[in-house]
Each structure stands twice: as C-alpha cells, then as structure tokens.
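Lab notebook, page 48
Experiment: co-folding of the full assembly
Goal: obtain a model of how the components sit together before planning crosslinking
Operator: M.T.
Materials (sequences as entered):
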Amino acid sequence: MPHRRTVAVAAIAAIAVAVGASAIYAAVMSPRSPSAACIGDYQHVVEGNDALKGFAVLVDEELPAGAVDRGHVPGQPPQAYSGEFVSGHVRGYISPIAVSGPDRPAMNAAAASLGYPIGSFPLVPLVGPVVQHNPGLLELYVTEATFKSTTGLESWLAMKKASFVDAGYAVSPAPDPRIALSTTGVMGPSDGLHEKILTFDVANGPTALELDFQGGTDLSADHVASVVTAAIDRFANDCTP
Amino acid sequence: MKRLLRLITAVVLAAASTALPQTSTVALAAECQHDSVHYYAQALSGYSNSVSGTGAWTTSWSTWYVSTSNGFSDVAVWLWDDSGHFLEGGFYTGAGVTVPWTNSMLPYYTLDNGQHEHDYAGDVLTTNANTWMEVHDQPSTYSTYVKIQSFYLYPGTYTMLTPRHNFSQGEVATNTSTWMGGSGSGETFSGLWSDSGGSWHYWGFHNDCANTPYWIKSVSSDSWTIGGR
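Observation: model returned without errors.
Model output:
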C-alpha cells in the first residue's frame, strides 16, 4: 500500500507540473476525513531524499502506544494520548558510516563488554568516537501517531514538549511554519561523544508526524531543512483532514 | 500396614499440594486495569507517611524480543502520593520519548504519571547483571533521584507529599510477541522501601495483578516474578 501510494503521488505530481493544471491535483488530493487509509504511510515521507543516500532501515514497526506512555498506576485514568490512540508507526534509518565505518569495531567491543550480542547494527543511540568523528546526520527516526481527535494529539504534543524540556532540549524556532514543535538538544553530556538531536513535530488533523534527527556536532536545522520540508509537503498533501 | 498406607497417602498428598500453589497463584492473579495497548504485571505494597523511596533488586535482561507489533518493554519502581505526584524509574528497550528508539537497555524516569519522560541515551545498562532500581524523594532535603545499576538520574526538585505508596510494574505496549521481563523464563524482583531516615526495609506484603498473556507469580512477602509474551 505505501509503495502504491508513493507511485501514485509521484505520477500525479508530475502531471500537475507538466500541464500546470493545479485543478487536477486538487481533484485527486481532495480533502478527506482521516481514515485508516491514511495510517501507516507517513513513515515513508523521507525516502528518496539525497540526504539519506546509503542509509539503512534500522527499525520499522508498528507503535501501538504512539507515544510511550509509561504511567498507569492502579486507579489512575490513562492520559488522553493513550486513551485516544488509534495507530502509530516508527521507522528508523542509520548512516552507513555507523554500520560499517572505521569506528564499528570499537562499537562492537563496547557492546560486547556489556554483554550485548553483536548484530547487523550497532547499539543505538550511537555514543562515542563514531559521533565524534562524524559531525553530520547519523540516525533519523520518523514516528507517526494517529488519534481519535485533536484532543489526543494535543495531549501527545504536550507530553512530548514537557519531556523534551525536562531532558534539557531547547524549544527552537521552527524552520517551517507548519511545524508545531521544534526542539534541539544533546542526548547526554555535551562532550562530543553523545549525539545532537533535532526534533520536529507536525500536526495534520488528529495525526502527528515526528522527525528526530540525530548526529554529530554540525547537525543543524539548515543541515536537514530539505528533508524536513519535503517530508512535511508529502505529509500535508497525502492525507488532508 | 495401615500405618504404611497412611504414610504413603500423606506423602502423595503433600507432593500434590506443593505442586498446586504455583499454578494456582499464576492463574488467580487479579487482572490489572489497562487500556487497549498497555499490558502490565504489577506488585503494589503499602504506604505510610514515613516512606521516602521504593527500591527493587532484579536482574537485567540477557535476552529480549521486541516484535514488529510492539512499542516497548520496561520494568520500573514507583513512588507516588495521593496528591497527583508520581515518580517512576526503571529501564526499557524499544520506543522512548526523548530517545526515539533503542535496541539496548536504557534507564529512564517519568514524573506526573508519565507526563515527563527522560530517557538516558548514553547510559547503556549491562546485560544479565544484578541490578538495583531505586526512586527516592527525601522530604527533609528535597533530594529526588533515581538510581538504575550504577547510573544516577536527577529529575530536579520534585516535592511529593505524604503518605507515599510503594509500587513496581513490568509494562509492555503491544498485543502480542513482546517479552515482559526479558524472556519467557521471567524476571524476579525483591521489593524494598526506604523510611524517612533513608534506611531500607524489605516489603512485608504485595498485592499482584497481571494482564494475560503476561503473568506474575508471588515468591514471598517481598519477592515476585513477572514474565510472558
């Protein structure tokens, strides 16, 4: 289904550009209510971007909780984002330099020293010399979460913002006005060994799309702007509430 | 001869009776409150004005499985009051909030019943290791901290009122195929509570519940095992 949708969108966009007939685009991409047909496609919105050339898919899984909701002690009602959750998905990408670059043996040794089996991918989030030696993008996670209503989505965004701020991430100016929440921070001490993280949350009706870019010290909003803009464009066009 | 038969009968009945409780304990664990995506195995102990912390000894996971139909798996200890303050500390694998996803085991804490979550990206836990988990809020000093293995996590000042409850749970977000407690053999905990002076005491009791297919089995007044998938 995702591939069919991608092909269809690409074909329609090409026609629209070729004949300048925006009416065609509007007719096919007519507004519709959020439905199951919209769910599960958004995690692919970054694919095909040159910035991710050579990146491997590290994780691709359904996310029943949408947002992690660690908090249901006896007698307490669920948070709105949990009670209203419909469906979600997370898809993660990792740089080839982290998978097979010169720092991989050291990463394997560090993982083995803690008792972890050595698999196709290193332990993530990446920590150590691989971060120090590679100042650009190393990991990207695309999370999509759909709720029954905007109440659930707003609750999810509030939880996200509170958690990011609590972790020391700074709310930053959004590079695109369609972004509801933009933060930047370091995933641990600012020692050059822990990844920098940029988070972007976009709302579209009751569906949220979160892009989490992780990498070295040079990672910036400018660095990933083309990926963010293209992803938001596809997210906005693909399923308009 | 009759005495011998009575003795044999007694031995057989005794053997049968010792075999039964383990099964019946698992089957009779109450159902935890849960929504459509979260499954729990919970042990709830007591509360008092002198409680300042909850701790547990356990073993970090040696194997685990987060499937294609899941979100995460975690285990944690909790401290909460009756005025809406909740402090949770534990470790997890899979999806997180401030760390989008991990394939290792990372420590984390939450405040306010999950509203603030901080996952610690660089603090990768050792596998299959004797592990101490602790959440602590010392009213006299306003010292709030979480300790998981050798890692201290500091949520900052978080004022909790009294009385405070001692609680622990395993949690997964899934409907199938994610291990709770690391593997099918289960994960055993020994629960403790800290008094206002900072001294630790083993729990005197715990009330348990679990959501099928996950399970909890009482081992003693301060110990229990969780598992399943």
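Interpretation: Residues 7-237 of chain A form a domain with the Protein Transport Mog1p; Chain A fold (CATH 3.40.1000).
Next step: discuss with group before ordering constructs.
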